[in-house]
Amino acid sequence: MTHTKTTILAALMSATALSAAYAADPIKIGVVTPLSGTYAGIGQQVKWGLELATKEVNASGGIMGRQVELTFEDEEANPSVAVQKADKLFQVGKVDFLTGTVNSGSTLAVGQVAERAGKLIATTVSFADSITGDKCSPNVFRVNARAGQQSAALAVWLSKEKPKAQVFYLGPDYEMGRSTVAAFKSSAEKVGANSTGEVFAPLDSKDYTQYFGQLRAAKPQVLYTSVAGNDTVRLFTQLQEFGLLNNLTVVGASGTVTAQNLGAIGKAAEGFVTGVGYSAEIDTPENKKFVAAFKAANKIDPDLYGADSYGLIYAYKAAVEKAKSTDTDKVRAAFKDLKWMTPQGEKTLRGADHQAAQTMYVVRVTGGKFKIVGQVNGSDAIGPDACTKF
Predict the structure, then answer these.
(1) Residue 13: which H helix or E strand, with range?
(2) Most CB atoms closer than 10 Å: which of 83, 94, 213, 222?
(3) Total number of domains constituting the chain
(4) Is the distance from CB of 68 to CB of 95 less than 8 angstroms?
């Protein structure tokens, strides 16, 4: 073999090796989620859902023959920390895609980071309507139900169970809390409920009794709250200790009482009602399979955060395979009006506002477990898009 032929053969072999190595490079997904603090339980469900779906996808050959690699960073439910961690994952970790944000303020802030980095993010948790509404970003998607969807379903149930109810509101004092209260108040008043007052407590409040005087004076039949995580445990425990749960129906946002904090709340959670995009009680073969796999891996039922995070991996897989690339512009286009299957059934990512349309359920805590007591079709719950930026 001549020197020239040897050189050409070596070059071809090198190119083939490089091509194979490139094809084998993992698809990197960054996860910025609270793994400590008040919302750590929510972050844990996010982590479990993403890990389960990733394990399944990798076992079946990955995405376009490439394995998926998750990298986690603790955002502590703090927008400024989330921005730092997201920037690190984009610039140093070179992630192709990012998810995990819980705090709605974090999602909005990280969305701006994603725009600067030329990357996409999706939240599986944040409720604030503004994320896919007036503060929408072309680089941000949401696969979970927004506040308006939850509220529409819950208001339908309330109008039937307690017509013209007197409602008092207690939410956490930040973007999500004010958005969820506003969304439910609007939905409830449309079906005849009356508002008797509202208060907003700082995140990670230790003492809710300072608001009980206003609550008693308002004499409501219903208390709506959107506190979450450990804050819910403290609020419900204190309501029970002061005897305020005796003649009060408590309803709230889907993140208020979940599989993750239900045990810690105990009997104080009995009778709580919420509108959700997912319940472990959904009676379909797909959901039963998912619940069994999730419980086998984590020794606990999935909640809406675990289910929506699980579903996101399959949405991203479908988008990348449709785009035949992880390129931001191509995946963004593939995400628009994407339909894919999840444990709760088929979802559609609307191109007009990057919001998932889905069936909504109303669930009540009965005997320490969530039971489905109502259902609203996706088209009836989601409402019109409110994004005007793209």
Answers:
(1) helix 3-24
(2) 222
(3) 2
(4) no
- CA atoms of 309 and 43, how far apart (whole Å): 10
Q: Give the domain extent around 99.
A: 9-145+283-358
The sign of the CA dihedral 40, 43, 47, 49 is positive
**Measured distance CA(108)–CA(390) in Å, rounded:** 16
State whether 65 and 173 are in the same domain.
no
**C-alpha count within 13 angstroms, C-beta hemisphere, residue 132:** 29
pTM recorded for the entire structure: 0.87
Residue-wise pLDDT for 154-167, tens only, equals 999 999 999 999 99
Residue 207 sits in the same domain as residue 255: yes
Angle between helices 304-323 and 328-335 (to 10 degrees): 120
214 vs 390: which has the higher pLDDT: 214
* Residue 374, in any domain of the structure: no
List, in sequence order, every residue forming a beta bridge with 198; answer none if it has no partner: 169
Q: Which amino acid is residue 117, in one-letter code?
A: A
141 and 15 inside one domain? yes
> Is the domain of 271 the same as that of 288?
no
**pLDDT reported for residue 381:** 59
Which of 276, 310, 326 marks a domain boundary? 276
- Contacts for 109 with CB less than 8 Å, ≥ 6 apart: 79, 80, 82, 83
Distance CA 183, CA 193 (A): 13
